[in-house]
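ok so for the tutorial part 2 we go from a plain amino acid sequence to predicted structure tokens. step 1 is just haveing the sequence, like this:
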Amino acid sequence: MGLAPAAHGGNRTGRVFTGDRSGDWLFRALYRAGYANQPNSDHRDDGLRLTGAYVTATVRCAPPGNRPTIDERDNCLPYLERELELLRDVRVIVPLGGFAYSIVSRLTGLRPRPGFGHGVEARLSDGRVVLCSYHPSQQNTFTARLTEEMFDAVFRRARELAGPSPRPS
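step 2 — the prediction. this is what the tokens look like for a chain of 169 residues:
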């Protein structure tokens, strides 16, 4: 779960995390963890299939400066809440960044809420696990705050927590 569709990525292509550098990182990691049939997501009709994973964002529009307002956040919450209700088999939720973590915590009633950090795990009362990751933004990847090894470790751990699912063909 990311922050929002990027103006020149998901907002342009119609698929969240598609067509931007954050998406390049995400889909390569999902592929290496066995959740995607290919390591790239270039456009909606590129053949990408996810198995055992679902990608979404907390906010539905590309906010100016990548900082959603309180109104934008609150207007989008019902959509995200409904998505989570429909995803009945979800065992692990991976919020990418502190903003997504705060929204996941709010929607799931996570209490006590551990501080956000890369690799932090919190178990929900229903057994699901929230597994935090830094967002694969250029701000984090260009400075090596987030490395591919760190990102891969989160999705390997998500796989361990969720249990196996068939590798996509």
